[in-house]
Amino acid sequence: MKKDKKFLKDLEDGLGNIKEKYKKSIISKYENIIKEEKSKKRKITEILKELGNPKDIAENELKLIKKDNVFTKVSSFFKKHFSNDKKEKDYVKEETKRINKEIRKEKRKNIKNKLKSFGTFITKDIKFNKSDKPKKTKVKEETTIVEETVKDFEDEISDVAEIVTEKKIFESKKDRNRRILLKTLGIVLTILLLFIWLWVSVVFIASIFAYLDKIRFVGINIALFGLDALLLWIVIIVNRAIFKKESNWKLNLIVSVICLVIIALGIVLTIRQISKIETVKDVSIKYSMTTKLSNYTLPNEIDKKFTITFNSNYKTQYVMNYDDTLKDKIKVEVKYYECYYDYYVKETSNSSYISLKLDDRDRLSVYIDDLKEGLVFDNDELSRYVVRISINPDDVGRLVIND
After folding, report:
1. Which of 11, 154, 335, 361 could form a disulfide with 289 if both were Cys (CB 3.0 to 4.6 A apart)?
2. CB of 332 within 8 A of CB of 339?
3. What is the rounded distance in angstroms from the CA atom of residue 221 to the CA atom of residue 205?
4. Is residue 186 located within the same domain as residue 324?
């Protein structure tokens, strides 16, 4: 095995079971140093002698990695526990000073270790005569190597310092409050979008069941599917923006355009299908009116009156029918479409309450049932009702009607 390969192999063994990315970085660094020195036509034995024992190098590199991890953990601690209180600000300053002190200490220690491997050679060459130019040239080269090593180490230290400063340790109170406000608004917006998305999802599922129930409005299903997918994608985009995760804007644009195209297609199909629906004026081909007849007896006392009250939720239209055959009696006839109304009556000895309660669920059920046949019956006709009150003309003064 060649000496340089053996050196790198011993170095790799000395690094042990550290993370692969650290190991590759260190091996690559020393492999580049050897290649660079070889390009200067130097012997491999001299290069390896200057670099030193691979086990010592591995030990030193492991210390640097541990130090780097310590700095990262400290910076992470600052991010989680940073506060604008005076005490915590002072604590942050003290920790920053301590880190800088550790950096300077590690820098001196590393330089000392590097110089140690070259110390004997440099000391020996300084004692030579000034006229010995080859030796002076070699000393100069060795000094250059030391300077480059120091520079590399400074770069590594600067990387650690950048990790600390990127954690927003010195974020101002104004910036922090603004960041918290924006994050809170983003979370509220996400919750609102999720709520809307859930409702759209419920309507979409209902439309699927309606389709299975022979209501063949494919356009509505397609439009709701596109809207549901678009809302979900917007929730994902907003969530990634709040937590500052990377997002592919091209992918976002493509998905949004596809969802909008699906929605537009569904709307066009829905409009086309609605335009083909026939409105039927004559509802008698399917529905007929139901008649409810109530008979009431007027009070025996002439001064007492009988009261009829209709549901106050709507203005009741009634027709008075005078019948001479009736004596101390009242007849109330109510005709209505049972598919639209629920009839309710409550009687006492001197009064009667009559209600035609409009049931929205029944109306929707009728409308959906008609859609299965591709028809829509006239709503005005279905909502029509007739109230006829029959009474003797002499008893009109004994009747009170509240509507």
Report:
1. 335
2. no
3. 9
4. no
Cα–Cα dist 288/332, whole Å: 19
Q: Distance of CA 63 to CAs 11, 13, 67, 162, Å? A: 14, 16, 6, 19
Q: Which two tokens stand for residue 360?
A: 């929205």
* Statement to judge: residues 186 and 135 lie in one domain: no
The count of structural domains within the chain is 3
Residue 71's nearest CA partner among 81, 63, 61 is: 63
Same domain, 187 and 269: yes
Residue 335 CA to residue 289 CA, distance in Å, equals 6
What is the domain extent for residue 344?
Answer: 283-402
Residues 138 and 196 occupy one common structural domain = no
- Residues comprising the chain, all counted: 403
3-state secondary structure of 201: helix
The tens place of each residue's pLDDT in the chain, 403 residues long, gives: 577 788 888 888 888 878 787 788 888 888 888 888 888 888 888 888 888 888 888 888 887 777 665 445 545 544 554 444 445 556 656 766 776 677 667 666 666 665 565 555 445 454 444 445 454 455 555 556 555 555 555 555 544 444 444 444 456 778 888 888 888 888 898 899 999 999 999 999 988 888 887 777 888 899 999 999 999 999 888 888 887 777 788 888 999 999 999 999 999 998 988 888 778 888 888 888 899 999 998 888 777 889 999 886 767 788 999 988 888 889 999 998 888 888 889 988 889 999 888 777 777 777 777 777 777 888 888 888 899 999 998 888 888 988 7
266 in the same domain as 336: no
Which residue, chain included where needed, has tokens 């809307």?
Answer: 196
Instruction: Dump the DSSP string for 50-107.
Output: HH--HHHHHHHHHHHHHHHHHHHHHHHHHHHH--SSHHHHHHHHHHHHHHHHHHHHHH
Distance of alpha carbon 260 from alpha carbon 222, whole angstroms: 11
Predicted TM-score (pTM) of the model is 0.42
Last residue of a domain, one of 145, 171, 197: 171
257: part of which helix (H) or strand (E)? Answer: helix 249-275
Of 50, 67, 57, whose CA–CA distance to 156 is shortest?
67
- Using alpha carbons only, how large is the chain's radius of gyration in Å? 46
